[in-house]
Design brief:
Layout (H helix, E strand, L loop, with lengths): L5 H6 L15 E4 L2 E4 L10 E6 L3 E5 L20 E5 L16 E6 L11
Antiparallel strand pairs: 1-2, 3-6, 4-5
Length: 118
């Protein structure tokens, strides 16, 4: 998991946040900072990511039943995690009716998704 920046979490605590775009890249961590990995080193044709809010969490899930079984072929991956709404009382109240508590982002347009605004 990659946490959102603290200032964003604090700004939207208890509120609804609309994500209108995002960018991704594959990087190596170096002493000089993040360095983009050449596409010839790691071509990632498809990816799925999830963003969870304070009222949802990632749980190990059966890929054969999640989202109509669309993720049943995990290409050798053993574990699949997906968001689940938190229903127990955490003292903060239930999420507003009809407001999502998580979001799935799925891309299948090849490595050219890197460094492009979605």
């Amino acid at each position: 998991p990659v946490p959102l920046p603290d200032d964003i979490v604090k700004r939207f605590a208890g509120k609804t946040m609309a994500v209108i775009g995002y960018e991704t890249d594959q990087v190596r961590k170096t002493a000089e900072g993040d360095v983009s990995v050449p596409i010839t080193w790691a071509y990632n044709h498809h990816y799925v990511s999830f963003m969870t809010g304070s009222k949802s969490k990632l749980v190990k899930t059966d890929p054969n039943t999640f989202h109509g079984g669309e993720f049943s072929n995990l290409y050798g991956n053993v574990d699949f995690f997906a968001p689940e709404e938190i229903t127990e009382d955490d003292g903060l109240g239930a999420p507003p009716t009809g407001i999502p508590t998580s979001q799935m982002y799925s891309e299948g347009n090849g490595g050219e998704y890197r460094k492009s605004f979605h």
